[in-house]
Design goal:
Strand content: 5-15%
Distance between the termini: 40 Å
CATH architecture: 3-Layer(aba) Sandwich
CATH topology: Rossmann fold
Number of domains: 1
Order of helices and strands: EHEHEHEHHEHEHHHE
């Protein structure tokens, strides 16, 4: 389906990259479905949005019943689903403890949202995406490649890369194009709040260019990856990190 007339679901769309990415699609004429667990944040972010073009829903992607119900709501409202951006994730302060320091109950929640959440959304949306030869984009991170401190968060993003590879094979047989996007340092409030004061400068020194990543950068790349112009990119996770992961 041509750009500007699609139905696009973005999870984690109440703030940060998810919100900016959702608005990028909306501004281009697409209809947007914005999911987040933060009901108040969704209301603030999307208050006044046209209901004919925007559907918001409070959905916990860790709950398969919730993602099933959410997709049913999308189809009831718009009748189709063309693009899914699996962006929802627990990150920032409190979720970047080292692997052995992260308590078991927080490990479970981290995996439930960051890994199983991707599976739940993909499973719930698979039939709708297959019906229109749609696109599924999983948001990863440069930390999946070992660039960042050892953490449960990094482990979950490495798992997301593996899911992208596997789902590209499984859903590709049904006409769905699956790929990933791994941002580097993106200066959102959540990211900055979860970092030590000297960490941004340290990351900058690792980059090839002395420039901050912004949510608009990731939104633009995501929009491109969802477009027919990127139709040959399948099963890969595109790294957008200003060159950090060029290092061995």
């Amino acid at each position: 389906m041509p750009d500007g007339s699609r139905v696009v679901l973005v999870t984690g769309a109440a703030s940060g990259m998810g919100l900016v990415t959702s608005r990028r699609f909306l501004d281009s004429g697409d209809r947007v479905v914005a999911w987040d667990l933060d009901a108040d944040g969704l209301k603030r972010a999307w208050e006044g949005a046209c209901p004919e073009r925007v559907l918001t829903a409070t959905v916990d992607v860790a709950e398969p019943e919730a993602t099933d119900a959410g997709i049913e709501q999308v189809l009831a409202r718009f009748g189709r689903l063309d693009v899914v951006v699996n962006n929802a994730a627990l990150h920032g302060a409190g979720w970047t403890d080292s692997c052995l320091a992260l308590p078991p109950e927080r490990w479970r929640r981290l995996v439930d949202v960051n890994v199983l959440g991707v599976i739940n959304v993909a499973r719930s949306a698979a039939d709708a995406l297959s019906a229109v030869a749609g696109v599924l984009i999983n948001i990863s991170s440069m930390t999946a490649y070992g660039h960042g401190p050892s953490s449960g968060y990094a482990v979950t993003k490495a798992a997301v890369n593996g899911l992208t590879t596997s789902l590209a094979e499984e859903l590709g047989k049904r006409g769905v194009r699956v790929l990933g996007l791994a941002p580097g340092f993106v200066a959102t409030h959540t990211v900055l709040d979860g970092m030590a004061p000297d960490r941004p400068a340290a990351i900058m020194r690792l980059q090839s260019l002395p420039t901050w990543g912004e949510p608009d950068d990731i939104a633009g790349i995501t929009y491109f990856l969802a477009s027919p112009a990127a139709r040959m990119i399948v099963g890969q996770t595109v790294v957008a990190d200003v060159g950090v992961t060029r290092r061995p």
